[in-house]
Amino acid sequence: MTAPLREIDGPDGAIGGPKKVTVIGAGIAGLVAAYELERLGHDVEVIEGSHDIGGRIHTHRFSGDGRTGPFAELGAMRIPAGHRLTMHYIAELGLQNQVREFRTLFSDDAAYLPSSSGYLRVRDAHETLVEEFAAALPERNYRDNTLLFGAWLDASIRAIAPRQFYDGLNNEIGEELLNLVDHIDLTPYRCGSARNRIDLHAFFADHPRVRSCCPPRLERFLDDVLDETSSTIVRLRDGMDVLPRRLASRIRGKIMTGQEVVGIDVRDDAVTLRIRQGVRTVTRTCDYVVCTIPFTVLRRMRLTGFDRDKLDIVHRTKYWAATKIAFHCREAFWEKDGISGGASFTGGHVRQTYYPPADGDPALGAVLLASYTIGPDADALSRLGEAERNAVVSRELSAMHPELRRPGMVLGVAGRAWGERRWSWGAATVRWGQEAALREAERREAARPQRGLFFAGEHCSSKPAWIEGAIESAIDAAHEIEWYEPRASRVFAATRPSRSDKSA
């Protein structure tokens, strides 16, 4: 099991002496790899193509009148408390006092979700959800609690999955699951102020046998649904970007931004990088390289010395887009509507709407994460021009929150379409719809080194799309480099005389 590295006694703190390592990418994976390699006694430098660090963690801070106002998380915004590696680094970097609850979908009874009869409050939605869910079942002789369970599971899946993915499920999470659940007392899992919802995360944690009846190809998908609707998710009070910035401050080697790698040549004894620096391109020969950039970016480069299987996984790995649009509002108008946080499932192009805590100076306004979309839904939004995209979100969201139409309510808009960003060309690897054996085979192939070139990033991990996955893969890559012996050294070691031969 992956675990943070510990100091190793040896020459200069590293097995076989210190190695010189170049890390490509200053996202979480690159920064953790650099941090751990330095702890092991190696010499590390980090090069980053953009002018920022943090990768797909991006905290946007609104400002006005020379003052910094509230912020919006346009990248990673939450951490399941069970992600032990991420929580380890938060503690190790002295950020424990930053940890706060992250309230998610359906966690606020006053939030909204759509139905055939219009928007409903979460606290009032159960009867309609159960009625619509039961109407689609061929067999309806289930207990009331079972139907309530199925209705909220279906609502959660519908809220998280892109519309195209949800439509393709064909009720695969259906009768077999309900038949098992129907024999279990669900009373302890009823939650909400009126106890008319089901705590799905707690239920599946207590009943792994029920969990196992999910179709194998949807295992990863259901994991993400449960994580995203869990009551044990956290955030960082001052913004998620404090994590990469604190990590960067602990790294002794250089972190150089504006250094875009445009080509990689792998040889037996070295890795050669072609790096664009402004208007000129330079060549650098490196002993060891850790590549943490997404494969969507890597496959646009000139790659030589890679074997065929590696090139295949680089070009075959699928990434989903994500688009986030945040409104800087004059006030947290949703609080007057009774919403204290969490998120609504808005539907349409908007999909999900989050209400971040308005815990700053009220005079500086508040942030509404107006729209969070993934996959084909994000692609549909990103194809629109920025002005049209913002207008579509504002128009659709105003049907649920008419306060947005008030003059002067929206002070500013910020957004990021990760599928269109040249440093990512996608938000994350999403291996929904794959069985466990195939997921693991792809992970291993994605992480497999090419001689002195090693790989890390969420796409190389067992937890794609999460910070946890990026950290896990970085630690694994640092382990591999620590124990790696170049081919020439292996050949020499095999042919040189032994100690007993020399003494003879």
Report on this model:
By secondary structure, the protein is an alpha+beta fold. It has three domains: 11-51 and 257-317 and 431-487, FAD/NAD(P)-binding domain; 59-82 and 320-420, Polyamine Oxidase, Chain A, domain 2 (Alpha-Beta Complex); 114-229, no CATH class. The protein contains 19 helices and 25 strands. Strands 12-2-1-16-25 form a five-stranded parallel sheet, with helices on one face. Strand 1 (20-24), helix 1 (28-39) and strand 2 form a beta-alpha-beta unit. Helix 1 packs parallel to helix 10 and helix 3 (126-135) packs across helix 4. The protein is globular. Residues 7-12 and 489-504 have low confidence and may be disordered. Its cofactor is FAD. It holds the Pfam family Amino_oxidase. This is Amine oxidase domain-containing protein. Residues 28-481 form the Amine oxidase domain. FAD binds at residues 75-78, 261, 458.
Supply database-style keywords.
alpha+beta, 504 residues, 5-stranded parallel β-sheet, Amine oxidase domain-containing protein, FAD/NAD(P)-binding domain, Polyamine Oxidase, Chain A, domain 2, oxidoreductase
What's the CATH C level of the largest domain? Alpha Beta
- Measured by DSSP, the beta-strand proportion falls in 15-25%
| CATH fold descriptor of the largest domain | FAD/NAD(P)-binding domain
At the fourth level of CATH, the homologous superfamily of the largest domain is: FAD/NAD(P)-binding domain
- What are the segments in which pLDDT stays under 50 over at least 5 consecutive residues? 7-12, 489-504
Largest β-sheet summary: 5 strands, parallel
Count of discrete alpha- or pi-helical segments spanning 4 or more residues: 19
In the sheet with the most strands, the strands line up as 12-2-1-16-25
- DSSP, total strands: 25
Number of domains: 3
What does the overall shape look like?
globular
* CATH architecture level-2 label of the largest domain: 3-Layer(bba) Sandwich
Average of per-residue pLDDT values? 90
